[in-house]
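Researcher: Here's a chain I'd like modeled. Treat it as a single chain, no partners, no ligands.
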Amino acid sequence: MISTVAGLSVAAGDEGESVGEFTLVLAKTLGPGRAYLNLGGAGPLNSQVEFGRRAQRYTGRLGYRWEPSPEVALLLGVVHEGPRETEGESATLAELSLQWEIGDELFVGPGVFFGLDGREDTPRWGAGLSIVF
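Model: Modeled as a single isolated chain. Structure tokens:
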């Protein structure tokens, strides 16, 4: 399966930053689940505004979505993100998420991530809620 996701964040004023984002999603059924690779990038759309707060950046995600049943999925992945600021550093994270289907192809569940590269800017760990449609 190959799909794409495109997004546009438009500034709400003269001083704002408009950002364009694009993600390519590759997935392949493998055993009782799917292996996936997401490649994405974002950059400025406003050439008149200095794009200092958010630099052009990229993201790569490689992982596996194990589906022991149609209603439950366990995701394990490695994410590499380019810097979010012009002088920031890249970050490499491991992520783990457990998801339940609550509607037609709508999955929700808790997730955690851990920093892998030991850099000062990389979060050591975090938790959140994942929603996949």
